[in-house]
Amino acid sequence: MNASIQNLLRDFIDEYVCALDERRGQDWLALFADDGYYAVLRHTEYVTGNNVLIIGEDMKRLRGRIASGFERDRRRTVHSVSGVRGDATRCRAAFALWSDGLPMYAGRYEMELVSVEGQLRIRKCTVVLDNDIIESPIYNPI
Prior knowledge:
This protein is α+β, with helices and mostly antiparallel strands. The protein has a single domain, classed as Nuclear Transport Factor 2, Chain: A. 31% of the residues lie in helices and 43% in strands. The chain contains 4 helices and 6 strands; from the N terminus they run H-H-E-H-E-H-E-E-E-E. It has helices at 3-21, 25-29, 43-48, 59-72, and strands at residues 32-42, 55-58, 77-86, 90-99, 102-116, 119-129. Strands 2-1-6-5-4-3 form a 6-stranded mixed beta sheet. A hairpin with a 3-residue loop joins strand 3 and strand 4.
């Protein structure tokens, strides 16, 4: 594995989760390519190839989610990330998410990446949740 790209990917994922935890929605959106897509699904649907998404949004809808989500759900979040792996076109990382100090979600990020003006950007982010039961609406990106 190329250590340089792995460090770049770790920094990229760190910015992804820090932007969410610090409620910097515009910075988080800036990590996506113009044609970016964001999806959230349970692991069960992921492994069976079932097309049931919890969230499936293009950039227009994702901008709307950021605008309203942080207003609707004001809980403080903390992400923990491990196992960041990939190359210049794909990245995978495990995560756990706490909300107001309580464990909320765990799973992994599967990202398809592109280079835009020399910077990594997300073409597609798939959040695969290990949770079998989703207790409440998901307003904010994970």
